């Protein structure tokens, strides 16, 4: 096989691409000097624990399971409703819509895309934040009255 300059150039380009590492939309998220992406932590106390001993507890546990499954299945590019229907398809009742722009173990990075004027998200359009899984599950439970 005859080795050419074009072949060796292609080999160098491919080797350089693998040395960069995995692509992440914003590799500076963890660098406090270059970026200040907020992190929303899960609450210390589970909402369902407040219903211990009542008939609501089993319903809350089931809702927590559904919220956890929904949150764990989110992938980059998915649209989510942050107010007025988290866990449901984004529709006209949704007051604030966001997009999943990155994922990590136990975390989802969301970007608020649109928010209606009566939404608490109205002044934070196009901002990013990392949400722990438990924070989004808590949102799911709160929207269902738990």
Structure report:
With 146 residues, this protein is of the alpha+beta class. It has one domain (28-143). It has helices spanning 5-20, 56-72, 133-143, and strands spanning 39-40, 79-83, 96-104, 107-115, 128-132. A five-stranded mixed sheet has the order 1-5-4-3-2, covered by helices on one side. Helix 2 crosses helix 3 (133-143). The termini are far apart. Mean pLDDT is 82; it is low at 5-25.
Topology:
Blueprint: H1 5-20, E1 39-40, H2 56-72, E2 79-83, E3 96-104, E4 107-115, E5 128-132, H3 133-143
Parallel strand pairs: 1-5
Antiparallel strand pairs: 2-3, 3-4, 4-5
Tally of DSSP β-strands:
5
Low-confidence stretches: 5-25
**Mean pLDDT rating:** 82
Major sheet characteristics = 5 strands, mixed
Strand order across the biggest sheet? 1-5-4-3-2
Shape: globular
Give the proportion of residues in helices.
Answer: 25-40%
Structural class of the secondary elements? alpha+beta
Radius of gyration over C-alpha positions, nearest whole angstrom: 21 Å
What's the SSE pattern?
Answer: HEHEEEEH
End-to-end Cα distance, whole Å, is 69 Å
How many helices? 3
Nutshell version of this structure?
The chain is of the alpha+beta class and 146 residues long. The protein is built from three helices and five strands, in the order αβαββββα. The chain has a five-stranded mixed sheet, with helices on one face.
């Amino acid at each position: 096989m005859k080795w050419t300059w074009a072949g060796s150039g292609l080999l160098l380009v491919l080797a350089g691409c693998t040395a960069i590492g995995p692509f992440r939309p914003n590799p500076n998220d963890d660098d406090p000097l270059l970026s200040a992406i907020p992190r929303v932590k899960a609450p210390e106390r589970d909402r369902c624990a407040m219903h211990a001993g009542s008939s609501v507890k089993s319903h809350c546990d089931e809702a927590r399971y559904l919220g956890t499954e929904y949150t764990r299945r989110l992938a980059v590019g998915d649209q989510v409703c942050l107010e007025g229907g988290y866990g449901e398809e984004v529709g006209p009742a949704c007051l604030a819509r966001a997009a999943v722009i990155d994922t990590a173990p136990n975390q989802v990075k969301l970007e608020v895309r649109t928010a209606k004027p009566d939404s608490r998200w109205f002044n934070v359009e196009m901002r990013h934040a990392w949400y722990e899984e438990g924070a989004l599950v808590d949102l799911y439970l709160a929207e269902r009255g738990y």
